Amino acid sequence: MSTPTIGRLRVDGATLHYEVRGEGPLLLLIPGGAGGAASFDGVADALAADHTVASYDPRGLSRSPLDDPQARQRVAQHADDAFRLLELLSPDAPARVAGCSSGAIVALHMLTARPERIERVVAHEPPVVEVLPDAAEHRALLARVQETLRRDGLMPAVAEFAAGLRRPGADPVPAQAATELPPQARARAERTMANMPYFLGRIVPSFMAYVPDLDRLEALSDRLVLAAGTDSHGELPYRPAAFLAERFGTGLVHFPGGHTGLTTHPAEFGNLLRKVLTT
């Protein structure tokens, strides 16, 4: 894996850590969940063969501290952060953007807010559950997760959230045996766990309540690739991507693995991402 160029960007209320590799048109990678720039370590080098690849830790996560740790989190502000990076790294040309999970929600907002600066967006399983006909059920899930977090703490809330994301009738995912990770992977896992209270308590309630501008997205759907995991059928994060692809008539691109296919199948995921960005 190549060593990226590291930068810091001051934005409203936060300082962003970002990493840049390669040369060519800008590809901005937006991580999801409790992950940061390191989420894309498995694909960044391959993508950097023909792109300037930028990834970053979203505000409040890992190495991108907030000025006010209690500040309310909003999709629009996270999208503005991404635009600030875009303006810094590609001031004269539109960029390509790929986001996963909550990062895909940010990517959708970017496309509707500043389409003149976006050439193409790949949105992998954006959990915009408000577009679904059973959105009320998912609001109830989020309320249960927040109540569990307040009453019982982090790990019970994580379990409640994970159960709500699984397909109906699916068995719980078995706990994995502890294994000794290489130092870099161990540091990444530790950062992810440290980010979890912020993600579950602050990002999830705001982002999963976000309502995209569907008419505007549909008008821009020729620049939008809606994607989901081959193994995700029936799971909650899969359903909004499938719903939007059907509504827009664009088709759904299936990536290897499930919701975390970026991590579990990095080589295949990266190859397909490169293909859909350039065709």
From TrEMBL:
InterPro entries: AB_hydrolase (IPR050471), AB_hydrolase_1 (IPR000073), AB_hydrolase_fold (IPR029058). Keywords: Hydrolase. Signal peptide: none annotated. SUPFAM superfamilies: alpha/beta-Hydrolases. Residues 25-137 form the AB hydrolase-1 domain. One of its GO terms (molecular function) is hydrolase activity. Pfam families: Abhydrolase_1 (PF00561). PANTHER family: AB HYDROLASE-1 DOMAIN-CONTAINING PROTEIN, HYDROLASE, ALPHA/BETA FOLD FAMILY PROTEIN. This is Alpha/beta hydrolase. It comes from Actinomadura miaoliensis.
